[in-house]
């Protein structure tokens, strides 16, 4: 009878081999993702096959010619993550090795390998995701444990070996451990690789100029905006180059000295504005931030920078300044009307400009007429807008009494003219009224307000979708969380990500992608029913919705309404139905303190769970 240690020891060694090859697969995942499909499949197949063969070198021999190891766990996990091609390669390699070993259990070994591959492929088909939920790995491990029990049962029936029963407990435990360990290791590597790919894509496609340099000023990485700005088709073409290769020497020396000072002083340069002549000879304005990068040992290893082209904003500011200058000039050249009233309110003197300013009541604006008579004629002729029709005489009395009080009032006439009336009592109780045509001023003020409002909208909204931008989102989230925290009311956050947006862009083009994002933004707008709710474009194809005074249940309902609105709005779209995954998190002080960053992180985790669960779903984060 074989002792327990004689069974456990080789199986544990098998487990170590599985751990080793799991680590190799994880470390090579980034490199594998960059290869062509067939090369990637071949490499993974060879790796899985090698792992299976390595476990076979540390087998448990039940009786001469009949052995057991963890090769089937390796094959099943390989099939689960990489499909039938990898499974076939691994079976061929381990099967060939088993044939060379010989023995009585060759047929059962091939049955075990083939069944393990089918189990892995079956669970893969059920999961239907390149980043499966951990549940499927647990299910795979349980299925492999059941498969082991089936093989032991068949072995005792066919060979009639009582010793095979000694394999049940250690084999089941090690099968579960090996499958779970290898599955979760590879899943973690894939998720990390996916996150890195999303981050790389976001950095590469950001409209701002993003770059990292070494201590000698050579570019270590740049995004597409930097490469295209300097005339390169790909960012990789700039790696290893410096400013001396991309601009004139004087400018390059200026940048080199500036960055050297930043690294030597270890002080960041933030929002530095400068005006530069571009390659076409045009003046452009840029706002730049640069920060020194420190390694783990505390030494400066380089510099990271972000530059934003603010030319459009600067031009708008210049236009606003010119508008104000034109307004000042117009005011200085105005020809004012002048009128003098005595202490009793009778008109004593007026010039032609005063009468011309009031075309419908000009005949009444003559010396000797009382201010109340003039005002009544103005009202009867419908000359001035805003006069109460049911109390004309009372209005005339009230306005006439203002001659004794210094004031400035602007009125609008029937023809769209705006007049500013400035009243200044004189020392002899007379009153001087100066009338200025401020129509140009009013129109300029309106244009200035509209321009300022447009500038404010540009600074606070996303230009594509019209939703709030990331800066506004950060400010509102912090403000609303503070308010709800003081009031003791809940607040919920919804993060939304358009499903398979990169694939949509690749198939239909970026213009269709922009239309898709606009469709999603409009669906979000129509789904929010309260003015206090805020929808923002969080970045790329990701959106965020702040729901103050809303608990998790209400937020889930809003998220479902948004998800359904997106699906309905895109039902007839030529590009096909658009779906979105949404993650919901609640901020409630009674369930534990949190920060805006923590709330976003929890909502992002719920969003990630929705993606992992098959997309087009709403998932809620657990309470802290």
Helix and strand topology:
Elements: H1 4-27, H2 29-33, H3 37-56, E1 60-63, E2 66-68, H4 71-82, H5 84-101, H6 106-127, H7 134-159, H8 168-205, E3 209-213, E4 219-222, H9 224-229, H10 243-246, H11 249-265, E5 269-277, E6 283-294, E7 300-309, H12 311-332, E8 337-341, E9 347-350, H13 352-356, H14 371-380, H15 392-401, E10 407-412, E11 418-425, E12 431-437, H16 439-460, H17 470-487, E13 491-498, H18 501-508, H19 510-527, E14 534-539, E15 542-548, H20 552-569, E16 580-587, H21 596-612, E17 618-620
Parallel strand pairs: 16-17
Antiparallel strand pairs: 1-2, 3-4, 3-7, 5-6, 6-7, 8-9, 8-12, 10-11, 11-12, 13-15, 13-16, 14-15
Task: List low-confidence stretches.
Answer: none
Beta fraction of the residues?
15-25%
How would you characterize the largest beta sheet? 5 strands, antiparallel
Strand order of the largest sheet: 4-3-7-6-5
Structural class: alpha+beta
